[in-house]
Design goal:
Radius of gyration: 14 Å
Distance between the termini: 25 Å
Structural class: alpha+beta
Strand content: 25-35%
Helix content: 25-40%
Number of strands: 4
CATH class: Alpha Beta
Strand order of the largest sheet: 2-3-1-4
Number of helices: 3
CATH topology: Alpha-Beta Plaits
Order of helices and strands: EHEEHHE
CATH architecture: 2-Layer Sandwich
């Protein structure tokens, strides 16, 4: 896995009517902090059409880079704001299959 990207998936179950606010907050933290961190490669936000969820798909160079992001004091300041808007499940892994047309 050392020569492959580490994939971080965050699944947010959004409180009713809060999806737009959550997306704005996630965009802000990505633009201001995440993109500046060592080991970050890419981030994609995916919004559920029904307004009930948001997924963050991001790629990092190493698991240590993901942990460093989570431990960054600037990111920790965002977590309480995010938790006011949604609950969170998170998975860190690696791609095991990819097919493209």
């Amino acid at each position: 896995m050392s020569d492959e990207s580490v994939i971080l998936i965050n699944l947010f179950k959004v409180k009713p009517g809060k999806q737009d606010a959550l997306i704005a907050l996630l965009k802000q933290s990505t633009e201001a902090i995440v993109r500046t961190l060592p080991g970050w490669k890419t981030t994609r936000l995916i919004a559920a059409k029904d307004g009930a969820g948001v997924v963050i798909y991001s790629e990092w160079e190493t698991p240590a880079a993901v942990e460093a992001m989570r431990d960054d004091p600037r990111m920790k300041a965002y977590f309480p704001k995010v938790m006011e808007l949604a609950s969170l499940d998170s998975i860190v892994g690696a791609a095991v299959f990819n097919e493209v047309r």
